[in-house]
Amino acid sequence: MAVKPIPEGYHSVTPYLTLDDATRALEFYKGLLGLPVGETRTAAASELRLNGLTAGRLTQAVVSIPGAATVVLSEFTLPAGSTQVARPFAWRLQDVGSPQLQIQVAGLDALMARTAQAGYRFLSVGGKPIQRPFGRFVFAIDPDGVLVEFVEPAKETR
Questions:
Q1: Which terminus of the chain has fewer Cβ atoms in its 10 Å neighbourhood, N or C?
Q2: Dihedral (C-alpha) 11, 75, 30, 156: value to the nearest 10 degrees?
């Protein structure tokens, strides 16, 4: 998958995504998209407190989008015997602050076929790419409901 570098003068912010299941998320980002996973860590008790927790576990994996940015995938696990109920947030596109990633790709049709074969859904009508003068794009939905836009730029005419 080809990824376009961040333009000079543009500053990227590292997004943190909270996951329901890190294994499923890594199957999407590493397995399907082939993005490299760097550091994987378990947070210290002081970091749990910063997130409003007194017990449990916070694990994080750093996923790189080569030439563009990194994304930190975070999974909170409740302590054994907890009476609290963890419930994943159901993102909706219209929610203020709902996460969305945009990834420039080459070979959109092949990526869409692999995405569908792996059981992931598309938000785009009929799972078809949208054609615009600048290229084609489609919205896939990751295992945690995050929209991931695959963008294939138009070939330059000479």
A1: C
A2: -30
Look up residue 103 and give its DSSP letter.
E
Q: Looking at the structure, give the CATH architecture of the domain made up of residues 13-78.
A: Roll (3.10)
Q: Worst-scoring range by mean pLDDT, 26-35, 81-90, 104-113?
A: 81-90
Token pair of 4 as six digits: 């376009």
- pLDDT (tens digit per residue) in 145-156: 888 999 999 987
Q: Could you tell me if 118 and 32 are in contact, meaning their C-beta atoms sit under 8 angstroms apart?
A: yes
CATH of domain 97-158: 3.30.720.110
Domain borders along the chain are: 13-78, 97-158
Residue 57 to residue 140: CA distance in whole angstroms:
29
Residue 25 to residue 95: CA distance in whole angstroms: 21
